[in-house]
Here is the input.
Amino acid sequence: MIRLTHKSKLKYIYTGHTATPKEWNYDENLPKKPALRNLISNKLTNAENALFEIEKKGKPFTLDELTAKVKIKESDITFYQYAEQVIKDEKKAQKFGNAEVYKTTLNVIKTFTENRDFKFENLDLKWLKEFETHHLNKEDNTVGGLNVYLRIIRALYNRAIQENVVDKEFYPFGRGKYVIHSTSTGKKAISKESINKIRSLDLSKHPSLWHARNYMLFMFYCRGMNFVDLAFLKIKNIVSGRVEYIRTKTKRKYSKSFTIKITPQMQEIIDIYQGGKSKDDYLFPIISRKKADDVRKDIKNELKTFNKYFKELGKRAEITEDTDKLSSYTIRHTWATIGKQMGHPIANISDGLGHADMHTTQVYLDSIEDDELDKMSEEITG
Here is the structure.
């Protein structure tokens, strides 16, 4: 082990190697094997270099900061290796969607770097600008797509800093460095008139479209519920005339819970699907398998089908908006947009959508009563 001492405090860093008493030279207080001697020498050099780099800044530092710096100096993890490990960790945590996004981004990076691995320190401002140019020079690639990849790269870098894989002084994002600019994605919402047109369609001879409309309307009635949350709704989530659930997206973050009053419109749809089911059964026939990876695939396939049928519903209803842009996200944006147009406070709408990460307004948002949100939702969807 390497012992670090600072202001009468001690910390030890394990070298990852051991030696038996027979392998130890007690006179020199070193291992007899040359390989182990070299390893210890290299680790001591890394520790000394880390101390030198901290001291040359001329600022006070703690033993924890020195320890983190030494561990970073010892880290030989490359970007590819770290990304692959994160993908494994996400899968182990059953965050298959995240794992897939990380994997896609890593594949794009491998194409850009021609499968040549690199250290995090090499991912600097120049690298990011070259990556940007490489992406945008390809036909059909968009700034929006570029930003998705850049946000994943930034997330990996932040995670690597937290895990002492790379020093934060190399961080290439932020003011004065590389800035990921937001882009306008155009109008996502549709009007209440368009919702009513779809609601009025005669779909008695089109069962697939009829189911898709039921899903669409139920998500709209539930404050723009996400399709994944719709898929995971179970009979047991229907409690005393309310739909109660925790957003799948936030379960591992801050567990934002929803409690939504069941309106007659919602009850009509619930009655269609809940017959003969037990409390642990899913309300809607979206998930058909049990294994976590299969569940993810079921939802992904059903979402793709839903988006296709939603576009068809828009065309049949002859709505004025671009039907090719309709998706499950449209419903969420529509609920919020109609609420804003009707004069409801943006803070209330944010709370209705579950935007609990809005720190500046969270204290106020937490004080909003459920009946106030219910009244607002009924007014929007009625």
Notes: Residues 357-368 have pLDDT under 50 and may be disordered.
